[in-house]
Write a structure and sequence with these properties.
alpha+beta, Bacterial Protein-export protein SecB, 5-stranded mixed beta sheet
């Protein structure tokens, strides 16, 4: 993407309402020795120039952000659930637990960069995580 000089002059032409969002889960891991799950996701966003009459599919993003987050979720051996239920929680609930941190970081990142009050929208992360859960396998690491 070529740099846009007009971004340094103001952000009036950036459409902060209609954001293109891409969610990609990371492969969950289970560290057997530590009894610890590691789960996370990547979130990519594209922002477009609202002043042009070009159809959305032909527009080039004037601002992009990529953020990844990983969480560590420990389990107590005496309180373990059925493995399938436990892994389902890691695949679906872990992203939902982590999303507020991503949302706050994105909002703060834009505020610290001089953009107007951009509030990153709420997303139904449970729904997104459920769509990907059946294709994710938890990798067990023995050492």
């Amino acid at each position: 993407m070529e740099p846009r000089l007009d971004l340094s002059l103001g952000t009036d032409n950036i459409d902060f309402e209609n954001i293109e969002i891409s969610y990609l889960p990371m492969k969950p891991l289970f560290l057997k020795k530590e009894q610890l799950y590691i789960a996370g996701f990547k979130l990519e966003t594209n922002y477009y120039d609202k002043s042009t009459e070009v159809p959305r599919e032909n527009k080039i993003a004037v601002l992009k952000s990529n953020l990844a987050i990983t969480g560590f979720f420990g389990i107590d051996e005496k309180d373990r659930l059925d493995i399938a239920a436990e892994q389902n929680l890691v695949k679906i609930s872990a992203p939902a637990i982590l999303f507020p941190y991503v949302r706050a970081t994105m909002t703060l990142m834009f505020a610290n960069s001089g953009f107007p009050g951009v509030i990153f929208p709420l997303l139904n992360i449970n729904h997104l995580a459920e769509k990907f859960a059946s294709n994710l396998e938890v990798e067990e690491i023995l050492d």
